[in-house]
UniProtKB/TrEMBL annotation:
Pfam families given in the database record: NAD_binding_8 (PF13450)
Superkingdom field: Eukaryota
Family statement: Belongs to the carotenoid/retinoid oxidoreductase family.
Protein name: Amine oxidase domain-containing protein
């Protein structure tokens, strides 16, 4: 049976069958879709948020189709095996923690094959002077390790973590709720308007209850964290440069921002608000790579009756110019897929500038979308190596992997000044001379992604501007030079790393945009500054997943609460869709 025929069979057969997210589709989109069918809902994009939205909608008995441009599902949460023979890369995202616990439970993702591999220790920062810092979920280990640099910091660290955990409890409520958008719908009935006011009052009332539980002092500290630079927060708590720099990397990861950028303190919180196995701030590898997350969600969606179509590029959202209502989507091959509801998992820019006809959108809304911050300074390098790197600061050499290999390895992050310098170089259009590198080796725990004795390395690198002041990322010499710069920096900490490289795959910001549809190469579908969050995401007046086009909704990371493999935008968007359907 051909792959295309098998996909058709799986989508329409017994609910417990599943689709392989790693098989390249060869059939045209039109051959995979029932001719003339009118769907209850269509989802643009088979990334994890789109799949979450489709699964929840289908569980209410509605017919749902997911249309994915690439031949493989998952968006940025994807595993690919054909880049270096024998190795399986998590090509974009590479760790899991933010996925909402309710989604794990509701969609029974473990039953659908999701297996998490918690990391302990979770962080390792080697120093050129021969010292190192290990951190993780073990409080005794943290105290012992931090004490090597500062006994004062060792005492402060548990209090710092405790405060962040308190803030996370408040954020849980916000993350799992649709923003209470204040938009006057003149066509709505008086009953609908009153209900809308009650719903919004319920949100603000719930938020007030959580704020009261925090107490006035904690709320002042919370707002300080939201608006302050990460450097201010970390300088208040700690004195050790190595500890501060290690923690500061969470505040700037994925952002065109530095440690002194106002609001970077919030991104610090964003990366500790997740959990693994009920433990806050614990990040895990996923067995088989991040594509296994998307695979498990797609299996839950298929079980609920969702039709998933790959190689189905949407070229336009069809809108009735008379009524202003969505009528479905048109595909690049000319196929029309009809539905009164369309959820877009694409970025806001892609959705409203490239797919929706400009004449149906308010001018001020379109202007806000076009001028939003989609800048990126992130490059992902996936590396295959023939042996584990051995760090000169570690006395014991373990070819099978020691504590230093388990978690995120922070290269070039011995001080916040180093991180700030790297950022300022990129702000001037130059890729950082000494990049800030977050290095992970998932194959130490996951034996399914590399040949025996060999390993997969993820390098999440900053800072690399989208547009270079000199040269171009299209130039193979520029690309090779930057990759070798990163490998040479690692050599300073782990001599011989460069010679262990078997092959690699590099994704610069333009590559991320071209291959994964990430506008500007921004992994969050748009900046995560305070001016781009909550009621301001993706644009003022349109934060509740609805759009100026009736029946068109956003369900991706460009909507509240933002980026990361969390699924919250997809799940929250469905709650709004169901509200609107109920109102009708």
């Amino acid at each position: 049976m051909s792959p295309a025929a098998r996909r058709l069979l799986l989508a329409g057969a017994a609910r417990r069958r599943c689709l392989s997210t790693d098989a390249e589709a060869s059939a045209s989109a039109s051959s995979q879709l029932p001719r003339g069918k009118r769907w209850d809902a269509v989802v643009i994009g088979g990334g994890h948020n789109g799949l979450v939205a489709a699964a929840y909608l289908a569980r209410t008995g509605r017919s749902v189709a997911v249309l994915e441009r690439r031949g493989i599902l998952g968006g940025a949460a994807v595993s690919e095996s054909d880049l270096v023979p024998g190795f399986r890369f998590s090509r974009c995202s590479y760790l899991l923690s933010l996925l909402r616990p309710a989604i794990l439970r509701d969609l029974e993702l473990e039953r659908h094959g999701l297996k998490l591999l918690p990391r302990s220790p979770s962080s390792f920062t080697p120093c050129l002077d021969g010292r190192y810092l290990l951190l993780g979920p073990d409080a005794d280990l943290n105290h012992s390790e931090i004490s090597k640099f500062s006994k004062k910091d060792a005492l402060a660290y548990p209090r710092y973590e405790e405060q962040l955990e308190k803030f996370c409890k408040l954020m849980d409520f916000v993350i799992d709720s649709a923003p209470p958008e204040i938009r006057q719908e003149f066509h709505a009935s008086m009953v609908d308007r009153m209900k809308d006011r009650v719903d919004k009052s319920a949100f603000w009332g719930g938020l007030l209850r959580h704020a009261i539980q925090q107490g006035q002092k904690n709320m002042v500290e919370f707002f300080d964290l939201l608006v302050s630079p990460a450097s201010k927060i970390l300088n208040y708590w700690f004195e050790s440069e190595v500890l501060k720099a290690t923690l500061a990397t969470d505040a700037v990861i994925g952002a065109m921002a530095g440690v002194n950028t106002p609001g970077s303190g919030y991104v610090l919180l964003h990366h500790v608000m997740g959990e693994t196995g009920g433990q806050r701030g614990v990040w895990a590898y996923v067995q088989g790579g991040m594509g296994s997350v998307s695979s498990a969600i797609s299996k839950a969606a298929l079980e609920a009756g969702v039709q998933i179509v790959t190689n189905a590029e949407v070229s336009q959202v069809m809108v009735n110019e008379t009524t202003g209502k969505v009528e479905g989507v048109a595909l690049a091959d000319g196929t029309e897929v009809h539905s009164p509801i369309v959820l877009s998992n694409a970025t806001p820019y892609k959705t409203f500038v490239d797919l929706v006809p400009a004449n149906v959108l308010p001018e001020d809304f379109l202007c806000a979308i076009k001028t939003a911050d989609y800048s990126s300074a992130t490059t992902k390098i996936n590396v295959a190596i023939d042996r584990l790197p051995q760090f000169h600061c570690c006395k014991d050499i373990n070819p099978e992997g020691g504590p230093e290999h388990m978690g995120t390895i922070h290269i070039g992050s011995e001080s916040m000044e180093e991180i700030d310098l790297a950022y300022r170089e990129a702000a001037g259009g130059v890729s950082s001379k000494r990049p800030v590198i977050e290095m992970t080796i998932p194959s130490v725990l996951d034996k399914t992604i590399s040949p025996p004795g060999q390993h997969v390395i993820n390098l999440f690198v900053q800072y690399t501007p989208y547009k270079l002041s000199e040269g171009s990322w299209q130039d193979s010499n520029v690309r090779k030079s930057f990759a070798e710069r990163c490998f040479s920096l690692i050599d300073e900490y782990a001599p011989g790393f460069s010679s262990s490289v078997v092959g690699y795959d590099m994704l610069t910001p333009p590559d991320l945009e071209r291959e994964f549809g990430l506008t500007g190469g921004n992994i969050f579908h748009g900046a995560m500054g305070l001016d781009s969050l909550f009621l301001m995401r993706p644009a003022k007046g349109w934060s509740d997943y609805r759009t100026p086009v009736k029946g068109l909704y956003l369900c991706g990371s460009g909507a509240h609460p933002g980026g990361g493999v969390m699924g919250a935008p997809g799940r929250n968007a469905v709650s709004v869709v169901l509200e609107d359907l109920k109102a009708k």
